[in-house]
C-alpha cells in the first residue's frame, strides 16, 4: 500500500554516490526510511558488504555498511512541494519541529529547504525550486 504523495524529482549526494550512502547498521537504519521517509526496500545484498536499495516512486537510493561516515554524507532531494513533503514526514511520525524553511541560493537557482537527520546520522535536505 504505497501512498507516495511527494515526488522526488532529482537527488544529489553530498559525497559521491546516492546508491552507497554509509550506515553503521543496515538493519537498524531501514525502519526509519520505511516508516518515516516512505521508502520501500527493493533489493538487499551482502556482497561486497551489506546493502539495500530503497525506492520511493521512481526514485531510488542505497544504504550500505561500507565503512563510510554517515555524519559526513546524505542527499539533497528536489521535491515538487516542500510543505507537502514536510507534512508527509510529520504524518509518518517524524519528531522534528518545523523550523522555518530556509532560502538558499546555489548557482543561479533559489531554493526553499529544510533538513532531516536520520537516526543513522545521514543528513537529507529537501528543497523546492523558487
From TrEMBL:
InterPro entries: Glyas_Bleomycin-R_OHBP_Dase, Glyas_Fos-R_dOase_dom, VOC_core. It comes from the Bacteria. Residues 15-129 form the VOC domain. This is VOC family protein. It comes from Spirosoma foliorum.
Amino acid at each position: 500500500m504505497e501512498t507516495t504523495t511527494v515526488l522526488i524529482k532529482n537527488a544529489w549526494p553530498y559525497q559521491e554516490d546516492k546508491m552507497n550512502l554509509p550506515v553503521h547498521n543496515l538493519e537498524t537504519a531501514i525502519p526509519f526510511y520505511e516508516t518515516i521517509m516512505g521508502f520501500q526496500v527493493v533489493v538487499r545484498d551482502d556482497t561486497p558488504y551489506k546493502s539495500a536499495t530503497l525506492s520511493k516512486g521512481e526514485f531510488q537510493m542505497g544504504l550500505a555498511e561500507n565503512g563510510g561516515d554517515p555524519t559526513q554524507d546524505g542527499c539533497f532531494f528536489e521535491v515538487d512541494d516542500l510543505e507537502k513533503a514536510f507534512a508527509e514526514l510529520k504524518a509518518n511520525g517524524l519528531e522534528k519541529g518545523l523550523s522555518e524553511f530556509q532560502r538558499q541560493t546555489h548557482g543561479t537557482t533559489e531554493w526553499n529547504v529544510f533538513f532531516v537527520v536520520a537516526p543513522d546520522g545521514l543528513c537529507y535536505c529537501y528543497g523546492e525550486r523558487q
